[in-house]
Design goal:
The complex is a heterodimer. Chain A is mainly alpha-helical. Chain A is built from eight helices and three strands, in the order αααββαααααβ. Chain B is globular and about 85 Å long. Classes of the chains: A mainly alpha, B mainly alpha.
């Protein structure tokens, strides 16, 4: 989605896509790094010598961007693998949280957009159905992806329960950041902040009113 | 430690950021065409937006067109790949540590040939989106304001992006200078051809990339404006 948002920012100058791109490519990596540094400093003091409880596995499958060194040595993912652990949360969970926080906020905002008096009821019904579809499909997809990640690749988020809980908590926090980014981009105008193009296709009421009757002067 | 020396913790942190930036940038370039296909597929599935679905269809068409061109031209005069075409930065798609690579654009299309698969795809997509925006000039002019400004910014950014891709492919030796230049021209032409094809196949709303409300005349809507004239 980072790449898609980048190319759609370039080609359509969309504020929604530029916010999403800036969030995923710039803000979230810095946020993740700061979170890992902070959690590392905190947990290494209060839980010294128990690193396995709050660290996560670092096999090649767990990395989004493989390191150049990894190309010389093959490491397969196996549960509990990875002697050296990095600190929770992972960039994967924070970026997924951010992405779905943005999407869900966009869906909720579309669903709650006020109906203008005299607006076409068919158009309103269409918008409502589309917004509901976006919300339901996004939520199901998010639950499936995160569920699969924690079930099949749980060690990438934390080698023990505490690491996974920390990862999950930062995932929820990232959703709030994603929502914040959406509302920040919305302040630039609802029409240009809509990622799915539902609100932007709404016609002004004046355009949907009955045809005018023009009379010439006698 | 003197106060003028940077804190080792902060220095280590900055080094970590800079060390991580280079492989990320390389990965970004490698995944750009394939990532865009998957991103648009994801967006069209979630939003059920017609213009995204039509764009996805056109992207597959671009890959097939590239394969057709390269097969035909390659059988006459095999040419195209640059001196450094096998380098990691020039290879599209997701790479595994054992050097296995998965790339849709290089599977449906043909890598290391004329026209260059990634440049043809990217210029085709950029040209398609800019071309489709231009088809909505009437709406953009009517809506005015930020939409008008957006189209100008989008055109400028697209030109800059295409130029940056040109420089990157030539400087890293991924493709030869002539290959990139001719591929870009071909990609731009095919993008515009696809805009007209999709307009004919799916209608104007199929290429509505900005999701603008379409302006239709009263006659097109079947609601003519009545003029009351005095009886003769």
């Amino acid at each position: 989605m980072t790449l898609t948002s980048f190319l759609l920012t370039v080609t359509t100058a969309s504020i929604a896509h530029s916010s999403l791109f800036m969030g995923l490519a710039v803000f979230m990596p810095i946020f993740t790094l700061l979170s890992q540094t902070g959690m590392g400093m905190l947990l290494s003091r209060i839980m010294a010598g128990r690193e396995t409880e709050w660290s996560r596995a670092m096999t090649d499958v767990c990395r989004i961007v493989p390191s150049p060194d990894a190309f010389k040595k093959l490491e397969y993912y196996s549960s509990g693998a990875g002697a050296s652990g990095s600190i929770a949360p992972s960039y994967w969970i924070t970026s997924m949280g951010f992405l779905f926080g943005f999407f869900i906020s966009n869906g909720v905002d579309t669903l709650n957009a006020p109906v203008v008096a005299g607006a076409d009821p068919v158009g309103h019904e269409k918008r409502y159905t589309q917004a509901l579809h976006i919300l339901v499909s996004t939520s199901i997809l998010f639950a499936l992806i995160v569920g699969a990640r924690f079930y099949f690749m749980g060690d990438c988020e934390g080698r023990a329960t505490l690491g996974r809980v920390v990862g999950g908590a930062f995932g929820v926090l990232s959703m709030a950041i994603g929502a914040g980014f959406y509302y920040a981009s919305k302040s630039c105008g609802a029409r240009s902040s809509d990622l799915f193009g539902v609100l932007s296709q709404m016609l002004p009421t004046s355009a949907t009113s009955a045809s005018p009757v023009v009379c010439t002067a006698e | 430690m003197s106060s003028s020396q940077p804190n080792p913790g902060i220095k280590e942190w900055i080094d970590k950021v800079l060390t991580g930036a280079k492989p990320t940038a390389v990965e970004f370039l490698r995944l750009l065409p394939d990532g865009f296909v998957f991103g648009v597929a994801f967006m069209s599935l979630i939003s059920m937006c017609k213009s995204y679905g039509v764009l996805l269809f056109s992207m597959f068409e671009l890959m097939l067109i590239q394969r057709l061109f390269s097969t035909f031209i390659g059988s006459v005069a095999p040419t195209g790949a640059g001196p450094n075409a096998a380098a990691a930065v020039c290879q599209n798609g997701f790479a595994f540590p054992n050097s296995l690579r998965i790339s849709m654009i290089d599977t449906i299309g043909k890598p290391n040939a004329f026209p260059s698969s990634s440049i043809f795809f990217l210029t085709g997509v950029v040209s398609y989106i800019i071309g489709s925006i231009q088809e909505f000039k009437k709406e953009i002019t009517t809506l005015g304001g930020d939409i008008n400004m957006r189209t100008t910014i989008a055109t400028m950014l697209s030109l800059f992006f295409v130029f940056a891709m040109f420089i990157y492919r030539v400087v890293y030796g991924c493709d030869s200078f002539g290959n990139v230049l001719l591929t870009m021209i071909l990609g731009i032409v095919m993008g515009i051809v696809l805009v007209h094809q999709n307009m004919a196949l799916f209608g104007r709303d199929g290429i509505n990339m900005l999701n603008l409300p379409m302006i239709l005349s009263s006659a097109e809507l079947g609601k003519p404006v009545y003029v009351c004239a005095p009886a003769k």
